Description:
The complex is a heterodimer.
Chain A: H1 19-22, E1 39-42, E2 48-53, E3 59-66, H2 80-86, H3 97-106, E4 110-115, E5 120-127, H4 131-143, H5 149-166, H6 170-183, H7 204-214, E6 220-226, H8 230-241, E7 263-269, E8 275-283, H9 292-303, H10 309-317, E9 324-329, E10 336-344, H11 348-364, H12 369-381, H13 390-402, H14 409-418, H15 422-432, E11 438-444, E12 458-463
Parallel strand pairs in A: 2-6, 7-11, 7-12
Antiparallel strand pairs in A: 1-2, 3-5, 3-6, 4-5, 8-10, 8-11, 9-10
Helix pairs in contact in A: 2-7, 4-8, 9-15, 10-11
Chain B: H1 4-14, E1 26-29, E2 35-40, E3 46-53, H2 67-74, H3 86-93, E4 97-102, E5 107-114, H4 118-130, H5 136-155, H6 162-170, H7 184-189, H8 192-202, E6 208-214, H9 218-229, E7 253-257, E8 265-272, H10 280-291, H11 297-305, E9 309-316, E10 323-331, H12 337-353, H13 358-374, H14 379-391, H15 398-407, H16 411-421, E11 427-432
Parallel strand pairs in B: 2-6, 7-11
Antiparallel strand pairs in B: 1-2, 3-5, 3-6, 4-5, 8-10, 8-11, 9-10
Amino acid sequence: MKRAIxxxxxxxxxxxxxxxxxxxxxxQPLGRVDFPAYEKRVLPNGLTVYALEYHExxxxxxxxxxxxxxxxDPPNLPGVAAFTADLLNQGTRxxxxxxxxxxxxxxxxxxxxxxxxxxTSVSAAVLTDNTGxxxxxxxxxxxxPAFALDELARSQQQSLSGLAAQLEDPxxxxxxxFNRQIYGxxxxxxxxxxxxxxxxxxxxxxxxxxxxxxxxxxxSSLAIVGDLKAADAFKLxxxxxxxxxxxxxxxxxxxxxxxxxxxxxxVIDKPDAVxxxxxxxQTSVPRKDPDYFNLLMASYILGGSAGGRLNRTLRVxxxxxxxxYATIVPRRGPGSFYSTTDxxxxxxxxxxxxxxxxxxxxxxxxxxxQELQDAxxxxxxxxPLNIEVPSDLATRLVTVFLYDLGDDYLKTYRDRLAxxxxxxxxxxxxxxxxxxxVVAVLxxxxxxxxxxxxxxxxxxxxxxxxLNLN
Amino acid sequence: xxxxxxxLAVLLLxxxxxKPKPLEYKEAKLPNGLTVITHEDHSTPVTNLQLWYHVGSKDEKExxxxxxxxxxxxxxxxxxxxxxxxHDRIITNAGGVANxxxxxxxxxxxxxxxxxxxxKVLWMESDRMSTLDVSEENFKSERExxxxxxxxxxxxxxxxxxxxxxxxxxxxxxxxxxxxxxxMKDLDAATIEDVRAFYKTYYVPDNATLVxxxxxxxxxxxxxxxxxxxxxxxxxxxxxxSNAKEPPHEKERRITHKKMVPxxxxxxxxxxxxxxxxxxxxxxxxxKILSEGRSSRIYQSLVYLTRLxxxxxxxxxxxxxxxxxxxxxxxxxxxxxxxxxxxxxxxLMLLQTEPVTDMELEKAKNxxxxxWAFGRQSVQQKAxxxxxxxxxxxxxxxxNSEYDxxxxxxxxxxxxxxxxxxxxxxxxxxxxxx
Lengths: 470, 434
C-alpha cells in the first residue's frame, strides 16, 4: 500500500485491461497428494530396505545411507569420514579406480560416494538394464575397498588444493568460521572435508578403522526407486547386502556446546573483498525435538524464501544485497538456526543491524496469522514438487531412517505442520532464537566497517592469514 | 550369480533396450504470434510453465550491457493486477517455485506449481506480458540488487571474472563479447525510458514461446491460454537483431589477467559453430570423451595420473550464434601452469591425430542415452528441453530428433571437428597466477 501513493508511478504500457482478466481465477482445490506407495523390510542383519516402483522412465536410483559421517571423525582428525567415503570408488580388492569408473560410465550410469556431517552415502543411477551392474559395483566398493596408499595420497593432494581455493572464498570461510564458533569443540563444528593441518596427518589405518567401525548394516538404510518390481528390488538387496555383517557400533561422546552471553562478532579481515559475507545465529534443537517444526516455521517466516522478512527488508526495500535468508539445519544432535546475507562493504553495519532487528521482531512481535498461513501453504504445498523423480524419492526415504522419524512420518507430517499455531512459533522463537546471545561472523574488508560494529557487541578481528579452523 | 541371471532376464523383458521414451508434445501459434507448446504428464499433480522471450544480452544496445538481465528483475516489480513482489509470493504460498534467468539469447520466466494453479499462473504471466508497471523507485532499488549480484557472482569469488575476461578478449565484433551481467557503468547509465522501450519491443507475444508440461488437460489449458493471452496485441516495434559475425581469428590471443587467486589457472576458448550446427554433435561427444567422468581423458591425464591439476575440463558453450569451446585448468599446489597447459593441449591434439577407441565412443553415446532419460524426468526438465528446441533450434521436433544425430556420430567426425576447431590459432587464452 505504501507504494500505491507514491507520486513517481510510471505506467509503462497502456495495453487495454480486459474485464475478464481483472479477477484472478481461484484455483480449484487439489486432492490430497500422498507419498507414492512403497514397501519397507528389515533384513536379518539389520539393514532397512525401502522399495518404491517408478515406471515413468527406464531408470533405477539406488541410495545406501550409513548413519555415520564426519561427526564420528576421531577427535583432532577431521576429514577421516570424508576420505573413507571418497576412496570407496578409488579401487577394491579386484578392481582399480579406473576400472570402476569405466564399468559404470560405459553404461552411462553414475556411482558416487561421499560423507557429510552425520552420514555416508553411496548412490548409483542407471538405465534399468544395468541394475545388476549397479548393485554389483555398490557391493564391491562398500565391502572390499582397497584404500590404496597412492589413491589416498592423490586424494589428499586434491583436497588440500581444493581447500586452498575455498579458503579464499568469503562464502566458504563465513560458513566454516560460523560453525566453528557456535559449536566450539563439538564435532559438528569442524570442517567435514578436513583442514589444511589435519589432511596430511590422515593415514590408511584411520580409514580402515573407520570403515571397520561404522560401515554396518544395522545403522544403514537402502532405498531402491525405479522401473522394477518391489519384489525384485528386495531380492537384489538380499543378494548383495544380505551377508553384510552386523556390528556393535559405539558412538563418540559429544563435547559440551559453548555458551554465549552478549553478541560475539567475529570479523575475518580480507582486505581485497568488495562485499562482506554475514552469518548470524546459534545452535538449535535436534531434528526430533518437538520444537523443530515450530522453529522450521519461524525460519521460513524470517527468511525461507524470496518473500521472507529478511529478503524483503534487505533486498526489496533497500537494495542492500542479492539475497538474505534464514535456515534451520537438521541434526540428530543440536542443529543450528542462522541468517545469511552479503552486502557491499560500505553497507556492512547497516545490513548486520537489520538482521538483528528482524530476529528481534520475530521473537517479540506476534506473528500475523496470514504470514503463518503462507508459510504452511508453502511447506505443505511444495510436497508434490519434492517427490517427482526417483533420486528425490530415494533421498526422502533414507532421510526418514537417518533421523528416525517413524514409518508414518511421510503420511502424517503435513497434518502436524497444519496444527502449528502463531503462539507455538513465537514461543519457540522467543525461547530458542536470539539476537542478543548470538554469534555473528563477517568476512570482508574490516577496516572499512569495523568502527560501526563496536556499538553492536564485542568484536574480534582475525586477519585472514591467521585463520585457524582446527 | 545364480540369482542374478534369471532376474536380469526378467528386467530385460520389461524394457528391451531401455531406449529413452520420446517426448510427446503439441504445438500451436495464436493469431498474435505467441507460440504455445504443451506436454501432458499425469504422473504427479505438478505443472511447470516456462515463458521464453527471445531477447538476451546479445540484443543489448551499445552502452547498456547488463540491461536484459536487469529487465528480467523488473518483471517481478508489478503489473496492472499484481503488486510488486506478489508474483513470487502467490507462487510460493501455493507451494510452488518461481524464478527467471537471462542468457545471451533468451530471457526465461518459469514456475513449477501444484497442478490446480495452472489457470492462475497463466493469468499472472499474461498480466505482466501486457501491463508491466514499474515505478522509478523500484527500478532504482532493483538496480542496486543487480549490482550486488555482480559483486557476489563475478567480483568477490576468486575465479569469478575469468570468463568475463575471456569473452571480452575472444570477441571483437559479436555481442557475446560482454557477459550477461554487464558492467557497473552501464547498469548505472540505464534509465526508466530504456525500460519502457525494451518492454515495448521485446516483451510481445510474437517474440515469446509459452511451454507448459505437467498435469493438465489439453483442451482446458488451450482455452485458458486463448482467454488470457489471445488478445494481447502483437508487437508494434520491429525487432532488429544483430547480424554481427565474428571474423575468423588468424592467430592465438593470450592475456595475463591480474587478480588475487589461490592457485594458477588457465581458460582457453576455441571458436565453434552454433547450437544445432551439424558439427555441434561430434563436438559434444568429443567433450564427453575428454572430460566427463573419472574415466575421461583429461581427468585421467591431468587430475588422476599426473596430479597436475585440481580441476580440468573441456566443453562447448552452444548458443544461437557461434560461441566457444572452453577448456579450463586449475593447477594443484606446487604445479606450474605451463605444465598444465601443455598437458591440456596434448589431449586436444591427440583428438586430431588419432581416432578415439570404440569403447570411448560407445561410452559417450551411452551417456547421451542416459541423459535423455535422467535429464527428462521432471516437468521442468521436459518443458525446458521443449522450449530450447523451439526457440534456439527454431524446430521443436529436434527435442527428439537430435538423439539420432548423436547416435550417428563417427570416429571420423570427431577427428574432423577436432582438426577444424580445436587448433591453437583458433583460440583465446586467459591465464591468472597467484
